[in-house]
Amino acid sequence: MATQLPGEAGPRDARTDAVIRQLQQLGAEMADLARRFGAAHDIDHSAARALLVLVAAAREGRDVTAGAIGRELGLSSASVTALIDRLVASGHLRREADPRDRRRVLVRLEPSAAALGPAYFGPLAVDMADRLEEFDAHDVEVVQRFLTTALEALVAHREREAGPRG
């Protein structure tokens, strides 16, 4: 069994420890990839996360407001306004009046910003898809179930850290 550091959860088996270490390594690699993406496009971490929120919303056909971005990123109204102002000034986003409620302002990706992700991350997505083809359907379902559970744990941790809102 691995050495337990102060503050760590109780004993786990070696396979669980190995999976957790791999997740930590994966998280570090993903964070570094996001940093390099931001550096390549002169955007900071919050801006990159905001773009990801907007890309996901566009895929799902959802409208996004500044408030929704703020809630997703855990930013104050003033911070999200400054963030959106920077992204509008850099040509990544635009503000539009909601056609259903002219009092509401929607935040939209500019086509050039929407193309940044696929251009940068596309080769990685192809490589990952190619590697997943080595797994049978049952294995892919297990991986999906595990990743869903891991994401749920991360979200729960984030929400515990944020504490009650109100």
TrEMBL record:
Alphabetical list of InterPro entries matching this protein: HTH_MarR-typ, MarR/SlyA-like, WH-like_DNA-bd_sf, WH_DNA-bd_sf
Q: What name does the UniProt record give this protein?
A: DNA-binding transcriptional regulator, MarR family
The organism sits in which domain of life? Bacteria
Species for this entry: Jiangella alba
Listed GO biological process terms: response to stress
HTH marR-type domain residues are: 16-152
Q: Which UniProt keywords apply?
A: DNA-binding
**Does RNA-binding appear among the keywords?**
no
Note the Pfam families from the entry. Answer: MarR_2 (PF12802)
UniProt GO MF annotations: DNA binding; DNA-binding transcription factor activity
